[in-house]
Write a structure and sequence with these properties.
- This protein is mostly helical.
- It has a single domain, classed as Protein Binding, DinI Protein, Chain A (2-Layer Sandwich).
- Helices cover 56% and strands 5% of the residues.
- Strands 1-2 form a two-stranded parallel sheet.
- The model has no long low-confidence stretch (mean pLDDT 80).
Length: 162
């Protein structure tokens, strides 16, 4: 019997043998493969986001009588962009020295992070609005509230637009 096994040549492999690595690599290359991967990632992200919004209150035991959702959003990038534009305008007009810009930016960032931590301490999960694909209409957005508080604290100049 060992003589029969030694007589098998590599070219006489069974037809169920795995495809060659080159053939497998050829199937997964190109823009179509990449677009397929992106579509799968988008669907997974959507399912995870919706699942978190739906089941997070139940999982954390926060579905009490208050009816207040523990999830909220903030347009973080928009607030930071407003602050940068405001500081740039102040520097351009001579109202603020260039050397003061880093100090003001640090103070703004620290205050914004403290506001986020305070909401988290209240049991809120704050998500970046830019990263949320879909959410119920009653999910609160803290952007305007944070903007007003930062303006009141003197860390953000009113932009004149809402």
């Amino acid at each position: 019997m060992s003589k029969e096994i030694s007589n098998i040549k590599p070219s006489e492999e069974s037809p169920e043998a795995a495809p060659a690595p080159a053939a497998a690599a050829k199937d997964s290359t190109g823009i179509v493969g990449m677009l397929g991967d992106i579509a799968v990632m988008a669907v997974v992200a959507l399912v995870v986001s919706l699942g978190a919004i739906k089941y997070l209150p139940k999982t954390l035991g926060l579905s009490g009588a208050s009816g207040d959702l523990p999830v909220a959003t903030i347009q973080f990038d928009a607030l930071v962009r407003e602050q940068i534009v405001s500081l740039s305008a102040q520097v351009s007009s001579g109202e603020l020295a260039v050397e003061e810009m880093p100090k003001r930016s640090s103070a703004f960032t620290a205050a914004l992070l403290e506001k986020l931590k305070a909401r988290a301490a209240e049991g809120k999960v704050i998500m970046r609005a830019e990263a949320v694909i879909a959410a119920p209409a009653d999910v609160p957005d803290y952007t305007d509230q944070f903007r007003s508080e930062l303006i009141a604290d003197g860390l953000l100049k009113p932009s004149g637009k809402k």
